[in-house]
Amino acid sequence: MYTKDVAKLTNVHSNTVRLYEEWGYISPVPRLANGYRVYSSLHVKQMQIARLAFQQEFIQNNLRKFATKIVKFSGQMQFNQALTAAEQYLSFLQAEQSYMLKAVDAAQRILQQKNNCITLYSHKEVAKQMQISEETIRNWERNGLFEVTRTNQNRRIYTELDVQKLLIIRTLRSAHFSIASIREVFEKLKSDQQPKNLHVLLSLPAFQNDFYHITDELEKNLKLAIVNVKLIIDHLHTLK
């Protein structure tokens, strides 16, 4: 097969096929005496893996890093490593999907004022529960995204409402909202013109439209990425 044949089979421009070889996404392609590239079925499979990996819009930087790692291993014919990376990617995507759904549920619970739970959490427990570092939460606090109650021993304690607000922040950060943008949203609580109650803030049409649009887009991209990585795993099993 020549470049144009692979391009047609994988629905890309011929230049993309050449670039993928240059970037190491497919294995080195043998040349004929006249310089023409000659591709095998392996190259087609590697192209298909790369196309699946990069098909969706990458809202999160971590997703592109995972996808690139898989494609690079595939291009180097390290298929066991590529399979391991793909399985890790799938677990990551499923976890992100779960946290996104929890954030939507958290917003709904806040709106409905279903926060009667008196459970208190430590800083470490909250970080573990949301699978983020303790330093990330401290950074959000330092940047004014939320305030946390402290004990007499100066230890942070979190209520269920705090955790739900952190889930919302986590989702907005996952969708590439800057800390400054998130802070601007929550600073409305402190203004004289806006309500000083989180329940009321989240009920504002502007916030609801933005937040639910963001989560819809995030869910759509995560679902597509999950479908695609499962197909990648199937492809890699045939190459092992």
UniProtKB/TrEMBL annotation:
Residues 1-58, 120-188 form the HTH merR-type domain. SMART domains: HTH_MERR. InterPro entries: DNA-bd_dom_put_sf, MerR-type_HTH_dom, MerR_fam. GO terms for molecular function: DNA binding; DNA-binding transcription factor activity. Gene3D superfamilies: 1.10.1660.10. Keywords: DNA-binding, Repressor, Transcription, Transcription regulation. This is Predicted transcriptional regulator. It comes from Solibacillus silvestris (strain StLB046) (Bacillus silvestris). The lineage of its organism: Bacteria, Bacillati, Bacillota, Bacilli, Bacillales.
